[in-house]
């Protein structure tokens, strides 16, 4: 069954959707793509658009709904999506999540959604989300209110690769990014499609809802067109990309190659860094902090500027779970001890510590993985040369049997087999070019 709309709006949305998919996928269409559909208007419209599009391209749709277990109606909404999929002839799966009460609920729900979908998708690489131009405009206003810079104000990207697990990376596609929410609702109405309005979309306790109302008011007054904000965000994304390219070039010139004992840190030439224009310095510092901490988001602008000023003045400081300081003519950025001090992981095969260090060797049972710390440092072989200074070594991963230090790469002589691999699942590749490729916060 193909759902047809004679409405000019609907027709042009089908065309825009096909163009967005063509641009994202290139010439090689996959056998299947996944769609994250909540049952809300945006994602139900995306489902309909994708359904119509597959009739031309023969791609199989796999639809997933996450029931966060937060609202009693969520099960019925997932059922509505399942029924629509059954009518259209597509596979549908509901995944369930239970909040452990940790962290910010909205943020935890979004992260959980992505990791559940990643675990569910199997060999399907591409996952479609129904973010719209309105979402971009709202995010722009919210970030502006927080004093974000070029990176933070950048629009979400239509294609983003996510290294969330150990399998093939998932690709998030956002084919509705240039569509307005009202257009999508109109499209569904014309086609008599179903959707449910989540009551939290009207709850002003959420910043996004307040931003949405503000955009609507400014649009109604004629002060602003919502598209202007998403256009500005798109221009910021282009500026950010130019800055990234410049930062990558500069990094290639000033980076100091890491010794095997200092993997996971970033070190560059201080005088080379000082000669670079400030925007590039900020971009380099921001990307470096994300690389070293593994943080999903870049640091905020104001503390970033303050840290840069301290570094340029010859001092250092901590930010975003990292410490930056001057070391013999270099700037070193390494993990802040306080950020990893409490992390303890049983040293089983391939155990992951701090989301980035993976145990690379088989070790006897009963050992614990944790930061070297002051007590571990005190157990080093004092006669051996110390390749890593104490301030950086103490946050490095180490193996302990009770209180006894068993091994730590930061204390190993060069040439010895490392105990740990440095991996950046989640947030980029393993080389400096990849860390510079980190996208904007919204990406
Ligand atoms: N519970 C969910 N299950 C599956 N996918 C979801 C879920 N919640 C959100 N998504 C996906 O993530 C996108 C962005 O999420 P967001 O919460 O911003 O949605 P929204 O603006 O309310 O959109 P919608 O109207 O489709 O719910 C959605 O459009 C949808 O593709």
From TrEMBL:
Single GO biological process annotation from the record: tRNA modification
Molecular function GO labels: ATP binding; tRNA(Ile)-lysidine synthase activity
Catalyzed chemical reaction(s): cytidine(34) in tRNA(Ile2) + L-lysine + ATP = lysidine(34) in tRNA(Ile2) + AMP + diphosphate + H(+)
GO CC terms, sorted: cytoplasm
Protein keywords: ATP-binding, Cytoplasm, Ligase, Nucleotide-binding, tRNA processing
InterPro entries documented for this protein: Rossmann-like_a/b/a_fold (IPR014729), TilS/TtcA_N (IPR011063), tRNA_Ile_lys_synt (IPR012094), tRNA_Ile_lys_synt_N (IPR012795)
Residues that span the membrane, as ranges: none
tRNA(Ile)-lysidine/2-thiocytidine synthase N-terminal domain boundaries: 33-213
Compartments reported by the entry: Cytoplasm
Domain of life where this protein originates: Bacteria
Enzyme class: ligase
This enzyme's EC code(s): 6.3.4.19
Chain residues that bind ATP: 38-43
PANTHER family tied to this protein: TRNA(ILE)-LYSIDINE SYNTHASE-RELATED (PTHR43033:SF1)
Domain notes: The N-terminal region contains the highly conserved SGGXDS motif, predicted to be a P-loop motif involved in ATP binding.
Family: Belongs to the tRNA(Ile)-lysidine synthase family.
NCBIfam families registered for this protein in UniProt: lysidine_TilS_N (TIGR02432)
Role this protein plays: Ligates lysine onto the cytidine present at position 34 of the AUA codon-specific tRNA(Ile) that contains the anticodon CAU, in an ATP-dependent manner. Cytidine is converted to lysidine, thus changing the amino acid specificity of the tRNA from methionine to isoleucine.
Annotated protein name in UniProt: tRNA(Ile)-lysidine synthase
Organism: Alloyangia pacifica
The gene coding this protein: tilS
């Amino acid at each position: 069954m193909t759902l047809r709309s004679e409405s000019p709006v609907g027709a042009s949305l089908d065309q825009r959707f096909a163009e967005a998919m063509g641009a994202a996928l290139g010439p090689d269409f996959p056998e299947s793509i996944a769609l994250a559909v909540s049952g809300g208007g945006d994602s139900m419209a995306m489902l309909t658009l994708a359904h119509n599009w597959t009739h031309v391209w023969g791609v199989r749709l796999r639809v997933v709904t996450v029931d966060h277990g937060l609202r009693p109606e969520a099960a019925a909404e997932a059922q509505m999506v399942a029924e629509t999929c059954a009518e259209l002839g597509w596979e549908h799966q509901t995944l369930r999540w239970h909040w452990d009460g940790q962290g910010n609920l909205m943020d935890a729900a979004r992260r959980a959604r992505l990791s559940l979908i990643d675990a569910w998708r199997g060999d399907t690489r591409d996952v479609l989300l129904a973010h719209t131009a309105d979402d971009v405009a709202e995010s722009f206003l919210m970030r502006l209110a927080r004093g974000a810079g070029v990176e933070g104000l950048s629009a979400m990207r239509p294609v983003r690769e996510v290294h969330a697990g150990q399998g093939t990376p998932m690709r998030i596609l956002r084919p509705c990014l240039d569509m307005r929410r009202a257009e999508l609702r109109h499209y569904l109405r014309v086609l008599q499609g179903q959707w449910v309005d989540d009551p939290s979309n009207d709850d002003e306790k959420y910043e996004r809802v307040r931003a949405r109302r503000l955009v609507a008011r400014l649009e109604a007054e004629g002060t602003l067109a919502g598209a202007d904000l998403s256009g500005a965000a798109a221009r910021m994304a282009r500026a950010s990309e130019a800055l990234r390219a410049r930062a990558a070039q500069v990094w290639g010139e000033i980076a100091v190659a890491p010794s095997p004992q200092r993997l996971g840190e970033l070190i560059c030439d201080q005088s080379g860094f000082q000669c670079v224009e400030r925007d590039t310095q900020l971009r380099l510092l921001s990307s470096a902090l994300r690389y070293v901490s593994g943080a999903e988001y870049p640091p905020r602008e104001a503390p970033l500027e303050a840290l840069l000023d301290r570094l340029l003045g010859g001092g250092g400081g901590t930010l975003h779970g990292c410490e930056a300081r001057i070391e013999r003519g270099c700037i070193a950025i390494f993990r802040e001890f306080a950020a990893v001090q409490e992390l303890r992981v049983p040293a089983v095969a391939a155990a992951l510590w701090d989301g980035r260090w993976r145990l690379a060797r088989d070790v006897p049972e009963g050992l614990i993985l944790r930061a070297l710390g002051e007590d571990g440092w005190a157990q080093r072989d004092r006669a051996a040369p110390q390749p890593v200074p104490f301030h950086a070594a103490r946050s490095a991963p180490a193996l302990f049997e009770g209180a006894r230090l068993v091994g730590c790469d930061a204390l190993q002589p060069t040439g010895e087999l490392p105990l740990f691999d440095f991996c950046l699942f989640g947030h980029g590749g393993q080389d400096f070019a990849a860390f510079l490729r980190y996208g904007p916060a919204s990406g």
